Every structure is written in structure tokens, then in C-alpha cells.
Amino acid sequence: MSITQEFNLLSNRFRNFYPVVIDIETAGFNPKTDALLEIALITLKMDKLGWLHIENTLHFHIIPFKGSIINSDAIAFNKIDPFNPLRGAISEKLAIKSILDVVNKGIKIEGCKKGIVVAHNASFDHNFLMSAIQRVQIKQNPFHPFVTFDTATLSALVVGETVLAKACKAIGLKFDNNQAHSALYDTLQTANLFCELVNRWKYLGGWPVNKKNSSSQNHNNL
Predict the structure, then answer these.
(1) How far apart are CA 201 and CA 196, in angstroms?
(2) Is 142:100 a contact under the CB 8 Å cutoff?
(3) What does the pLDDT look like over 18-56, one tens digit per residue?
């Protein structure tokens, strides 16, 4: 395998991390006590030329776990009725197990060592995901326990925006505010944004890294 081909492997692009885009809708801000109501996941793939694309999508409505708190302000904001029978909600344990099965399979196929959460304001989604995994007592957690890829931070660097809708529009992606705060829609837009950010960096010559043309060396030559 040539050096160029090695750079175009997903496992080599992110230091053996397998990026998984996630968005979670909840009934509050406390991951230990507040109900997880909806979760969506998108896995990514890298083509032979090293461009990042969306691969598979999972989406679940979740039955609030026993004893969980449901804050009225939260469900008024995301417009989710936790007890609507038409939601087709499943147990938190079944949803998390299904998600981790997909992630473990992707890690193996891509030759990665660990999954990593990609999300907008990632600490929120990561904390709720980690709490849910612990709650349903799954011992083999494929995700890194604290490292995340936050598209809010990356967007601030690249386009000067931190709000998902504004970042998408700034980079040239459409965003429908009427569909916002749906886990499935927000995950899709976050995945599109992350791919665009990564691919634009490659297009501009930032990947693979050319140490001979670093900005610090160019600055010293001024």
C-alpha cells in the first residue's frame, strides 16, 4: 500500500479513532437523572481518494427510564411528547445495544481502535450517552471516555460560527429551522457539516500534513 493510500484510510485520518456522529434529545440537562428521549447516529466512511462521506444511519425514540425526571421546559423546547404511543419508542437498553453493535462492527471493519463521538456541543451528547451506557450496564463501551470531536469548536475555527444552523449556512449547507431539534435531522446536518469541514481542510491542502510548509516556518521567513 502506498503512502497516499494509507493517508486515505479512515483509521489513519483520526489516529485510529472511528468517528460516529450523534445527536440526543432529552428531558433536561442532567444526564444522571433526566430522561433520554431520542437518539440518532450516523457512521462515516472514507472513499479511495480520502474524502469523507455519510454511511449508515440509526434513529430511535426512547422510553424514559424508570424514575427519570421529565422537565416541562425541555419537552416544550424540543416538542417531544414522551408518552405519545405513536412515537414507536423502545427501551433505552435496546436502543443503546443496537447502537453499540453498529459501532463495534464499524470499528472492526475500518481497523480502528476506539469510537469517538462527533456532535455539536459534544459534551452534552457525550455525557448523556456515557450515562445511558452505564445505566443499561453494558461493560464493553467502544467510545472514548472523554475525547470528542465538537463541530461547534471546529465551525468556530473554520467559518466563525458556533450555532449549528449558522455554521451550516456559512459553509454552504442548507438548514431547515422547522426540522431542528429532531435528533435525526440534527445528526444529519452535523454529519454533513463535519464531512464538509474535514473535506475542505483536505481540499485546501491541510491534509496530509506537509511539515515543510508549516505556518510557523513561513512566519519565520517573513
Answers:
(1) 8
(2) yes
(3) 999 999 999 999 999 999 999 999 999 999 999 999 999
Residue type, 90: I
Residue 99 Ramachandran class (φ > 0 left, ψ -120 to 50 alpha, else beta): alpha
Question: DSSP for 32-99?
Answer: TTBPEEEEEEEEEEE-TTS-EEEEEEEEEEBPPPTT-B--HHHHHHHT--TT-GGG--B-HHHHHHHH
pLDDT in tens, 145-155: 999 999 999 99
- Judge whether 219 counts as a catalytic residue: no
Tell me, yes or no, if the pTM score tops 0.85. yes
Tell me, what amino acid is at 203? Y
Residue 56 in grid coordinates:
449508515
Write the DSSP symbol of residue 1: -
Which of the residues 53, 61, 120, 181 is marked catalytic? 181
